[in-house]
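tool=predict chain=A
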Amino acid sequence: METAAPHGNRRWWVLAVIGLAQLTVVLDGTIVNIALPSAQADLGISDASRSWVVTAYALAFGALLLLGGRVADYWGRKRAFLTGMIGFAVASAIGGVAQSAGELFAARALQGVFAALLAPAALALLTVTFPTGRDRGTAFAVFGAIGGGGAAIGMVVGGLLTEYASWRWCLLVNIPIAVVAVIAGARLIVESRATGNTRYDWPGVGLVSVGLGSLVYGFTQAEDGWTTGSAGGFIGLGVALLVLFVLVEARSNHPLLPLRIPAQRDRAAAFLAAFLTGTAMLGGLLFLTFYLQIVLAYEPVRAGLATLPMTAAIFLSATVSAQAMPRVGPRPLLAIGPVVAAGGLLLLAQLETTSTYAGHILPGLVLFGLGMGMVFVPMQNIALLGVDPHDSGAAGALVNAAQQVGGSLGTALFSTIALTTTTAFVPARTGTATAQLDALVAGYTHAFAWAAAIVLVVTPIALVLVRATKADVGGEVAE
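tool=predict ok
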């Protein structure tokens, strides 16, 4: 049997610990981006290799997520959570004191390894701690809001630390957070693990790890063109290996990812939503940062602070959505949220070089954040709804993997769209600085428009696939 989960008020403290770990993992995806120019200058990293500061983390994280989820299920979710948190802190310390590019790249890869253990363990613990009822919706609202707002918070914290301390603190800041999380987690979290068949599916591990890693790497290289050998070849290899992985899992009696998890229609909708929103969020953050710093000439700290209204909107919307979901069910929220978010992105797609923050950017940010908050709560909830406790780590890993692969795709896709648009724009203009800026903004706005189109796809998916009722998410059954 599964070990009993914490009950009463204690489980809200468990949620705080899990939320702290989730914030650390999500925040680290963007906090280093702001510090990258300073780290590059300090360590003498070349322009050609600097992207490995980001890629090394994404590659290890994306490749090992499903294995991390199964390790959490079989080895123990509390044990995996604490080990992941400690390992993440150690890797952060190595990166924080790195004296060469190679040391920093290795540290970032090691962070990704332990994040792949930590993230699914945290989501699995959340599931077994809040298995049913209204409190489950509230818990997932907090978790979803942290996941959605953490990237923006990372840019603010990264800017503050880089400008007023050192880029090294963008990594070292994880250490005190980890100390608090480990001490509190050791005291508060009750161990739980899967029972029965706990054999590892090593062929599946190899196929999905190399497949996801190849896919993520291919996406990160696609900024130079989708048909280049390094991009097209790795993406093709990744797709082929993942198809083979599905065939192997269908025949395994101890699969790494039981196909019953993504096959259930509500969960399938949630996983697709995770992938698509992960893709669109990059369109909402990456090019917004470029616009703020290049067009409006904001300093990094100011640019980070400028994104906070979006974070506030996500938290507000997630809170309201958690209260509404037991009354209306997850389907309306998951269908309406993308429309609202797309509306915000379309407002950003109207930006020009003369646009102002208050008049043009702020409304789009707030609308995008409100829509994302409406999506995150039902998405996270139904992604693990009805999952057997034996498989909660694997299901949590699949949610994270979908978002991670989506984010990598978003970076490559929108970068390619923006670059193609900018390049096509330049010949029709004179070579003045104003014309060059107009060309850049044209690229950014095309990326926003495509991000809006992608996030809108979640709406028909929700309407067609989601069948979960309000009773399934802690609401009352209609008389």
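The radius of gyration is 21 Å. Confidence is low (pLDDT under 50) at residues 1-7.
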